[in-house]
Design a protein that fits this description.
elongated; 27% helix; Rossmann fold; seven-stranded antiparallel sheet; 8 helices
C-alpha cells in the first residue's frame, strides 16, 4: 500500500490510475467502515480500478470545533496495518486545515478529489464535505462535473443500534467491552508503554475504571484500570515481547 499526504498545493502532482475510493474519518475501522471498504474492493475487482481510502489529518473536529481530543480507537500504525491487510492500494491523507475547511463543497471536489482520478466514490449516507458541511452524497456528481459517480452506503446497524465510532466509545466508557467489540468486528486492543507491572497507553481514557478480561501474548489475564494506569492482577513477567492488550470483556 502506498501512502500519500496531499494538500491544495501538491495534489496536482500525483498521477494516479483510475480509482475507486472511499472517504471519511475511519476511526476504528469498525463494521460500518468495512461496509464502505468492502464495496470499494468489490468495484476494484469488477472494474479493474485501483482502490483508495481517503481520510484527514488532523481529524476534522480538531479544526472545525477546536476539539483537542486525540484518543483514537486505533493508533496510526494499527490503522495502517489493518488497511494493508485489506489490500487497499492507496491511503490518501488530506492535510485538513483552516483553508481546506473554508472551501466550498464544489471546490473540495474539483480541487482535491478530481485531480486524484477518482471515478467511483463510496460514501456513507451521512457524509458531508465543504464549508459548513453543505456538500452531501447527492451533490458529488454535479460538483465533479459528472466525472465522479457516488455510491451511497446506508446506515449500518446491529440489533437496531447504529454502528458508529461515537457509539463504540460510549460502550468503552461504560466498560461494556462485549458490545464495543460487536460493533468493531474485532476485539478492542491497545498498544502498550510498559514499566514493570504498570501499563499506560495513548487511548486509556476511552475505558471506564474497572477490571477487564484480556489476552496478552495468547494468555488470559485480569487487569484493573485505575485512573490512567492498568495493573495486572496475576503475576506476569513484563518483557519486550508484550506489545498489546486485547480486551475480551
Amino acid at each position: 500500500m502506498q501512502i500519500f499526504n496531499i494538500n491544495l498545493n501538491n495534489v496536482n502532482s500525483f498521477k494516479l490510475p483510475p480509482l475507486v475510493a472511499t472517504i471519511g474519518q475511519f476511526d476504528g475501522l469498525h463494521l460500518g467502515h468495512m461496509s464502505l471498504i468492502n464495496k470499494c474492493l468489490d468495484i476494484k475487482k469488477n472494474k479493474n480500478f485501483k482502490s483508495a481510502l481517503i481520510t484527514f489529518s488532523p481529524r476534522v473536529d480538531v479544526i472545525i470545533k477546536n476539539d483537542s481530543i486525540t484518543n483514537y480507537l486505533l493508533d496510526y500504525n494499527s490503522f495502517v496495518n489493518k488497511l494493508v491487510s485489506y489490500n487497499i492500494d492507496y491511503l490518501i491523507i488530506i492535510d485538513f486545515n483552516k483553508e481546506v475547511s473554508n472551501i466550498s463543497h464544489k471546490d473540495f471536489i474539483t480541487k482535491l478529489l478530481l485531480p486524484l482520478n477518482i471515478k467511483e466514490l463510496i460514501v456513507g449516507f451521512d457524509f458531508s464535505y465543504g464549508y459548513l458541511g453543505l456538500g452531501n452524497p447527492s451533490t458529488i456528481y454535479e460538483d465533479s462535473n459528472d466525472l465522479i459517480n457516488p455510491i451511497i452506503i446506508e446506515e449500518q446497524t446491529i440489533n437496531d443500534i447504529k454502528i458508529g465510532t461515537n457509539q463504540i466509545k460510549h460502550y468503552l466508557s461504560e466498560g461494556n467491552i462485549i458490545q464495543a467489540n460487536r460493533l468493531l468486528g474485532y476485539n478492542f486492543f491497545i498498544n502498550l508503554n510498559k514499566t514493570k507491572s504498570i501499563i499506560t497507553c495513548d487511548n486509556i481514557n476511552l475505558l471506564k475504571d474497572k477490571s477487564y478480561s484480556v489476552i496478552i501474548n495468547n494468555n488470559n489475564y485480569i487487569i484493573e484500570k485505575v485512573a490512567n494506569q492498568f495493573f495486572i492482577k496475576e503475576s506476569l513477567f513484563m518483557n519486550d515481547n508484550i506489545t498489546t492488550i486485547e480486551f475480551i470483556k
